[in-house]
Amino acid sequence: MKHLIWMLLLTGGIATAQDSVKPAPDKNELKYNLNASGTHFFKATFLNQTWVRFNQSNPGTTVINEPASQTLDLGLRRTRIQLFGQISDRAFVYFQLGMNNFNFLNGFPALGNAQGVPTNRKVGFFIHDAVVEYSAFANKDWLKIGGGLTILNGLSRFSQPSVTTIMTMDVPVFAQATVDQTDEFSRKLTVYARGQVGKWDYRIGLTDPFPITTNGAAVPAISTNASFAAKGHHKQYQGFLVYNLLDKDTHQTPYMTGTYLGKKKIFNLEGGFISQKKAMWNTASQGKDTVYHAMNLWSLALFADMPINKTKGTAFSGYLGYFHTDYGPNYLRFNGIMNPASGTTQGLSGVSGVQGNAFPMFGTGSVIYSQLGYLCAADLLGKNGTLMPYATAQIANYQRLSKTASIYSVGVNWLIKGHNSKITLDYQNRPVYQNATDGRLSPNGRRSALTLQYQIFI
User: Fold this and answer.
1) Which of 1, 4, 243, 336 has its CA 20 to 30 Å from the CA of residue 300?
2) Which pTM value belongs to this model?
3) How many contiguous H segments (helices) and E segments (strands) does the chain have?
4) What is the CA radius of gyration of the chain?
5) Which one-letter DSSP state was computed for residue 341?
6) What is the dihedral of CA 185, 190, 194, 200, to 10 degrees?
7) By the 8 A CB rule, do 299 and 281 touch?
8) What is the per-residue pLDDT across 239-271, written as a single tens digit (0 to 9) for each?
9) Cα(37)–Cα(199) distance, rounded to whole angstroms?
10) What residues form DSSP beta bridges with 41?
11) CA distances from 411 to 167, 391, 394, 453 (A)
12) 3-state DSSP call for residue 225?
């Protein structure tokens, strides 16, 4: 009996002691501190964005040589690993590896390779970024000098987006102006300076662009319409300037946040440019007199992302930008994100890749882009998170189009655990085209796509 009493007392004491111990808080990042204060650290992140999509095909679309008026596909929009850290007060290093746009057509010969050439679907995981950076002032963001393969860009905040924090289903890719033409999925070999001084946030860069002949696709034949020059090599200059009227943007990496989900009070005036001499060429008359043109791109924008009611957790996010896009006379490029089609029987004069979900994404002219979003109350769905509906509009006035091209989308984010676990449903509506009698392209109806994405990020 005596032994039983001691056992009960001992068990109760252990239970009481265990009850008094508070459970360790959940960790929300994979971070290893290199010093006691945590100012020196090394960190790893992982991202996966899985898409399921239904698409109404552009006229003439084929999928592996069969007509397809519509498609249903599954793919990985982005799979990424980031490794970065503040190694000392002045030294910062950043790496990113991953793949993009992986669906059932990955490696299919018609996508950039001649028919009959052996291909391999097990490709595409590559180094996106490899950057070293030195801070001129210890523990200050006033001046950081860096270089390597980087997305640091001049044109706009969406030219260097933090894709894990974007509010919309996807970024406005037209703002990644030379994507996979003279860069590596928007990354370029660049030496740069960036920093934050007072309310000013700046970045300037000198870029060594890749030749168009190394992008893995057939180089367009020179014509009266401008295309990227396959002869000569010239450096690219770029700069981006932001005035933070309220809180400062996050500045740890060169990537720019899409939405802070009410955690910051951001209101910015933004402007940027990219310039490269003799980047483009065409012929004054078909087959004669090659003429070189500079590529000059610039933008001006307003960006706001701030809480509405901190108690409820509601917030607003909005962007309005004007883009001047001069690629030379009549430049136009169609692009379809993770295109679910492999070919077309209905070509358009002077452009390629018009199948599937493609639309005229890049061109000489101008673009107005806007997005609006509203973050609902934090407890809207109880323990299951909240919702953030959004809408976007992209209005492009390009020389090669007879009318303005308008692309619209509406969607909603189900923020299960903020950006770390979120489901997005997006509806996009876009124009399709036919050849016009004056050599331009004219609208010929509209098509839509419905996409469901699940993003996991840690």
Assistant:
1) 336
2) 0.92
3) 1, 23
4) 25
5) -
6) -60
7) no
8) 999 999 999 999 999 999 999 999 999 999 999
9) 27
10) 33, 86
11) 10, 6, 15, 11
12) coil
